[in-house]
Write a structure and sequence with these properties.
The complex is a heterodimer of chains A (321) and B (272). Chain A is of the alpha/beta class. Chain A has a single domain, classed as TIM Barrel (Alpha-Beta Barrel), CATH 3.20.20.70. Chain A contains nine helices and 14 strands. In chain A, helix 3 links the parallel strand 7 and strand 8. In chain A, 53% of the residues are buried. Chain B is of the alpha/beta class. Chain B has two domains: 94 residues, Elongation Factor Tu (Ef-tu), domain 3 (Beta Barrel), CATH 2.40.30.10; 158 residues, Rossmann fold (3-Layer(aba) Sandwich). In chain B, 19% of the residues lie in helices and 37% in strands. Chain B contains six helices and 15 strands. In chain B, the strands form three sheets. In chain B, strands 10-9-8-7-11-12-15 form a seven-stranded mixed β-sheet, sandwiched between helices. In chain B, a hairpin with a 4-residue loop joins strand 4 and strand 5. The chains are: A alpha/beta (321), B alpha/beta (272). Chains A and B meet through strand 5, strand 6 and helix 8 of A and strand 13 of B.
């Protein structure tokens, strides 16, 4: 009888394929990361998974000062997805450093901090502060959120304008040597020029997509279902949009791309990698299945073995057209 | 707080106890072991991506010896509809037990439990525990009509005195459950603690009445929920907090899932 995959590996009959990737100079055990805002500060998921097995953890978006967030209702379910308008509720960078990061120090998984600000100065100050403590607290890199759809200053989202994108990223680049991942919004006419602006400004990698702006209406009260009126759409419903944008950006920039958008099973993750993503972030699926990251890591290894691919990097951007 | 598990549990029985209201019994010894009255489990109702999110449902009753939990729920949408269509013997993917649970003070002697509609769900387990702790328990139940008064006999069997009000007067007293509350206070039966679960407007009124009567009141809240484990910050409610320095009343958004679902009635801001 032929040995099962597990037995074959156990007896050394199959070489373990390589799942390691490098993003923005950060070495990841595998390409599976968590998407900001869907994984809390990491600890929330420790009853369900071994955080040590993740490629990287991206924590809940942080700002310089604590943020109270939007009033409820903040979420509403939609066909194969959900809308959220949390409004960046977070504990602020000092509490993050003092109370949240120490817990993660015992893990050997890179911790990436998603940062947001109301002004360029706030982004810079935040990056500076995290830079100061990065060695001691184990901050591996920053994901710069220029794309939150639920918090707007003067009605504008930073990441919809090439000049503003360039200015924020270059301002942060000047004051930190930490790896910079810039998270892009899909709510633009042409994502390629925003991606280029971020690359030229010194981004080490790009992550995309953030949520798509949407809303739902209660037909009886005729009120919007979210207190914030609009929210960000995520979940399996957005996957084709995200894939298309990843493919577009992959053809435009040289820096690595992290694919995000509706990944809920291994096939989704592989689609993103084939379309050009070197790593992926799993978001909304964490809410449905807290073990989904582990299942996707396992599925990735299985796929590589079954298809005789020795290194996941061979798969990146290998789409045949 | 006890450990939250993500496990598959078997459906042992299912019964439609009233129109569109179902009682299911689950074999879940590992959950039952540590579960507290007022906690809930987060259930995956679909087998595909629609509906995508889990549904948070209160633990109605638990049988710690046999390792069983009972879930009482009303079909209100796609998720609960799918759940009502599950068969005995099916496995359910659940996360739980989640939440803080009701806090029965050891010094309490008299407890008043108030339910509105399907809000009765977490209160039977609470009644059982209150009686186990030697409290005198009275229960006030409110429902739109006779068929939607759920489990009155179960409370009586435990030894509680039960009063019922229906909106249309089709059963017992015509009126609101808050009328019963005002009556019971006038009558001079003063509880040490009030526990309530039901529609927001009802809870708001109960808290007002209990504050006037200087009775400590805990309410079970619900909000639309995604993760159920404290990560997404989707299910928040507005809670008063005191500024330590100035003594000023402020508020913050707290998570119904893990900071609640039970809150001190006096701390809830109802204006939204």
């Amino acid at each position: 009888m032929a040995p099962s995959l597990k037995e074959a590996r156990w007896f050394g009959m199959i070489d373990k394929p390589n799942l390691e990737v490098e993003i923005a100079g950060i070495k990841l055990k595998n390409p599976v990361m968590t998407a900001s805002g869907t994984f809390g500060y990491g600890e929330e998921f420790s009853p369900f998974i071994d955080l040590d097995r993740l490629g990287a953890m991206v924590l809940k978006g942080i700002t310089l000062k604590p943020k109270r967030g939007n009033p409820p209702p903040r979420i509403i379910e939609t066909p194969s997805g959900m809308l959220n308008a949390i409004g960046l509720q977070n504990v602020g960078v000092e509490v993050l450093i003092k109370e949240k990061l120490p817990y993660l120090k015992k893990y050997n998984t890179p911790v990436i901090i998603n940062v947001s600000g109301d002004t360029i100065e706030e982004y810079v100050e935040l990056a500076q502060r995290l830079g100061e403590v990065s060695k001691e607290m184990g901050v591996a890199g920053l994901e710069v959120n220029i794309s939150c759809p639920n918090v707007k200053k003067g009605g504008m989202v930073w990441g919809t304008d090439t000049k503003v994108t360039y200015k924020i990223v270059s301002s942060i680049r000047k004051i930190t040597t930490l790896p910079l991942i810039v998270k892009l919004t899909p709510n633009v006419t042409d994502i390629k020029i925003i991606a280029q602006a971020a690359e030229e400004a010194g981004a080490d990698a790009l992550s995309l997509i953030n949520t798509l702006v949407g809303m739902e209406v209660d037909i009886y009260s005729r009120k919007p279902k979210l207190a914030n009126i609009s929210g960000g759409l995520s979940g399996p419903a957005v996957k084709p949009v995200a894939l298309w944008l990843v493919w577009q950006v992959f053809q435009t920039v040289k820096i690595p791309i992290i694919g995000i958008g509706g990944i809920i099973k291994i096939e989704d993750a592989l689609e993103f990698i084939i379309a050009g993503a070197r790593a992926i972030e799993i978001g909304t699926a964490n809410f449905v299945n807290p073990r989904v990251t582990m299942e996707i890591i396992e599925g990735m290894e299985k796929y590589l073995i079954e298809n005789n691919i020795k290194d996941i990097n061979e798969l990146v951007g290998s789409m045949k057209i | 707080m006890n450990a939250i598990l993500n496990i598959k549990v078997k459906i042992l029985s299912k019964e439609e106890v009233a129109p569109n209201i179902f009682l299911i019994k689950l074999l879940a010894p590992s959950v039952t072991q540590d579960a507290l009255p007022g906690q809930f489990i987060h259930i995956k109702c679909s087998t595909d991506h629609y509906p995508l999110l889990r549904r948070p449902l209160s633990i109605h009753r638990m049988d710690k010896e046999k390792g069983r939990i009972y879930i009482l729920f009303q079909v209100v949408g796609e998720g609960t509809k799918l759940l009502s269509q599950k068969e005995v013997g099916d496995d359910l993917d659940i996360i739980g037990p989640i939440g803080n649970g009701f806090n029965i003070y050891p010094e309490s002697r008299k407890i008043l439990i108030i339910s509105g509609g399907i809000g009765v769900a977490p209160l039977l387990a609470l009644c059982e525990e209150s009686i186990r702790q030697d409290n005198e328990v009275r229960v006030l139940m409110g429902a739109p009509k006779k068929e939607l008064v759920i489990g009155e006999e179960n409370f009586r069997k435990l030894g509680a005195k039960v009063d019922v009000a229906t909106d249309d007067g089709s059963y017992k007293r015509k009126g609101l459950v808050t009328d019963l509350l005002e009556g019971i206070i006038k009558e001079g039966w003063l509880a040490d603690q009030i526990f309530a679960c039901g529609p927001k407007l009802m809870l708001k009124k109960i808290v007002e009445v209990s504050l006037e009567a200087h009775i400590d009141c805990q309410v079970s809240l619900e909000e639309r929920m995604a993760c159920g484990i404290g990560a997404c910050l989707g299910c928040v409610c507005k809670i008063k907090t005191r500024d330590k320095k100035e003594g000023k009343v402020k508020y913050e958004f707290k998570r119904v899932c893990v900071d609640g679902p039970i809150f001190e009635g006096s701390e809830v801001v109802w204006d939204d």
